Amino acid sequence: MIEIEHVHKSFGSLKVLDDVSLTVNTGEVLSIIGGSGSGKSTLLMCINGLEPIQGGRILIDGTEVHAKGTDLNALRRNIGIVFQQWNAFPHLTVLENVTLALRKVLKKSRSEAEDIAVKQLKHVGLGDKLTTYPGKLSGGQQQRMAIARALAMSPRYMLFDEVTSALDPQLVGEVLDTMRLLAEEGMTMIVVTHEMQFAREVSDRVAFFNQGKMEEIGPPEQIFDAPHSDNTKKFLANVR
Ligand SMILES: Nc1ncnc2c1ncn2[C@@H]1O[C@H](COP(=O)(O)OP(=O)(O)OP(=O)(O)O)[C@@H](O)[C@H]1O
Ligand SMILES: [Mg+2]
Fold first, then answer.
1. Edge-to-edge, what's the strand order for the sheet holding 14-24?
2. Is 42 near ligand 1, meaning CB less than 6 Å away?
């Protein structure tokens, strides 16, 4: 489980996360919504230990991410991240792109790495693209390759940061369907998204961020149909 306790994060004098606390339980899907600059991406970076924090703490399965002596590489192996765009290696095939970290980081043999990569590429519907080069994939296929690459490392958690926002509208659905499948399989996920329908249908809970604060968190029906906070209401009125 992921426990975020009273986290404060600033970039210089700019306060980006202001006393944020929330817990994501094993098997849970949490969607994070909120306006641009509200701190959503920064929170994911802090969870993964890619950004330091100035107060509070973040625990992954009881291990404090920012404590001295924490093995961040070991911790990160349990956390897959998929961003808006992932720059795959253009000179490597889809299969080679997905096996790379398995071989270099997890030191798997070629055949073992390929077995895992093929399995995950089939999982995301790219079983017929193994020998294709990334430049020949559609945006939706590239994002599914990025998901397969993360899944190949057998993470316990998956973090998604607006993975569909750079896609043409007709390609969004296939990527959301892949994420929906992972959710149904019980993957623990934090999904930063602008796709409100997806957040409503797939999440166990939705958190609304506003100016670095977690303004409101609750089941999707509550957040979308009966938000408590005026800022949540205002935000939702503008995105609908
Ligand atoms: N490396 C950085 N250095 C300085 N300021 C940063 C850095 N990264 C983010 N910020 C600032 O922190 C604030 C929060 O940024 P963040 O990227 O977390 O927002 P976000 O909620 O993900 O927004 P968006 O919806 O646009 O992706 C913004 O004001 C941003 O300009
Ligand atoms: Mg962001």
1. 14-24, 2-11, 55-60, 63-64
2. yes
Q: State the DSSP H helix or E strand holding residue 24, giving kind and residue range, or none if neither.
A: strand 14-24
Q: Whose CA is nearest to atom 28 of ligand 1?
A: 37
Atom of ligand 1 nearest to the CA of 35: 25
Does 239 have pLDDT greater than 90?
no
pLDDT bin (cut points 50, 70, 90) of residue 85 is confident
- Average pLDDT (106-116) is 96
Angstrom distance (rounded) from CA 195 to CA 133: 29
- Please name the residue ranges forming H helices in 126-229: 139-152, 169-184, 196-202, 220-225
pLDDT of residue 179: 95
Ligand 1 pocket, 39 CB below 6 A? yes
